[in-house]
Amino acid sequence: MQRKCFLLSCLANRSLTGHDPDKRKLDAILSMPCPENKAALQRLLRMTTYLARCCRSYSEVTAPVRQMLAQDSEFRWDERHTAALEKIKRLLTTAHVLGYYSPQEEVTQQCDSSSYALSAVLLQNGRVIEYASRAMTEAERNYAQIEKELLSIVFGFERYHTYLYARPDKVKVQTDHKPLLAITKKALGAAPKRLQRMLLRLQRYNLELHWVPGRDLILADALSRAVAADTATVSSGDADDIAALSTDAEQMGDLRMVASQRTVNALRAAAADDPVYQRLKRQIIAGWPDSQDDVTSDLKPYFTFADELAVSGDLVFKGQRVILPLGYRQAIYLSAYTARTLA
Fold first, then answer.
1. Rounded CA separation 121/57 (Å)
2. How far apart are CA 95 and CA 7, in angstroms?
3. pLDDT band at 258 (very low <50, low <70, confident <90, very high)
4. Selecting from 3.30.420.10, 3.40.50.10860, 3.40.30.10, 3.40.50.720, what CATH number does the domain 108-244 have?
5. Region 228-238: what's the mean pLDDT?
6. What's the CA gap between 130 and 194, in Å, rounded?
7. Residues 6 or more apart from 51 whose CB is under 8 A from it?
8. pTM exceeds 0.85, yes or no
9. Which phi and psi (to 5°) does residue 237 adopt?
C-alpha cells in the first residue's frame, strides 16, 4: 500500500511529459500578482530566502527587486522588476525546490488566512511538496478570523487528501492563530456551528495543531496575501461543502425554536443600539489578540471564551447560545421570572 502511494505521488509530481513538475501544484506561485508595496515585496523575499538553499543563482535573480527595499529607494515597479519576478517564480517551481512525497517521512502543513485568501503548503524535510492558495468567496470574507483560519486548514487537507488520508502518524499543522488550539481541545458542542462543520470535515484525518508566530509562517503567510482574484472557488462541489459555508440560516432557525420572531427582532434591535455589542462583533470578525491586556475593558469578560464566539444573523453566539445585548437582558430576565411565577 505504501509503495503504491509513493508511486502515485511520484506521478502526481510530474506532468504528462514526465520531465516537468505538475503545473497544478505550482499555480499558487505562478499566478502570484506583482507586489503593490514594500511590505508585499518583503513577504515575497522572505519566502524566497526560506527556500534559498534549494535555489540556484538566488542572489543574482532577486537582485533587481531587492534594491527597492533600500531605505532611500522609492517603490516603483516596472518591466525590469516584472521580468525578475517571473524568474523568481520559475526558481521557486524548479525540481531543486520541490520534493517527492514519501509516506514514511514526517509531513508538515503550513496554513494561513488573510482577510481575502487562503493558503496551504505541504512540506517534507524542508522541501515543498505542493503549493496551494485561493481567494475567498464573498460569503467567506464575512467569516470571523478564527473561522477563516480553520477554513484554511480544511482547504489544505482536502486539497492534499491523496497524501494525508489514512496516514498512521500525525500530520503536523502549523498555524499562527492560537484560539484554534483551544477550540479543538474542547467538546464539539462548544464550537459555533460553522466551526463544528469544519471540525467534522477534519475528523477523517490524523492531525496535530502547532502554534507558530506569524513571522515564522513564511510560505503560507506570503501566499495568503498574494493570490490572483479569479481563484475564488468553493473547495468541493458536494452538498456538505456548500452547507459548511452557509450556516447562518440554520443558526437562526435553532434560535427561533426557543424564541418567537418578535423576540428575535427585539434582540436584533437591541444589538444594533448597543455600542459594546457592536464592538464585540467587530472584535470577533477581526480576531482576538494574544493577551487580555490588549482588549478594551468592556470586552475583557468575553476574552476567556473568545474561541467559542461567532457572529450569525447580526447576533453573537457562544456555541449554540445567543449572547444577549446589555439593554435587553433585564427584559429577558423579567420575562423568565414572570413565566416561572405564573407556572
1. 23
2. 17
3. confident
4. 3.30.420.10
5. 57
6. 27
7. 92, 97, 128, 219
8. no
9. -95, 5
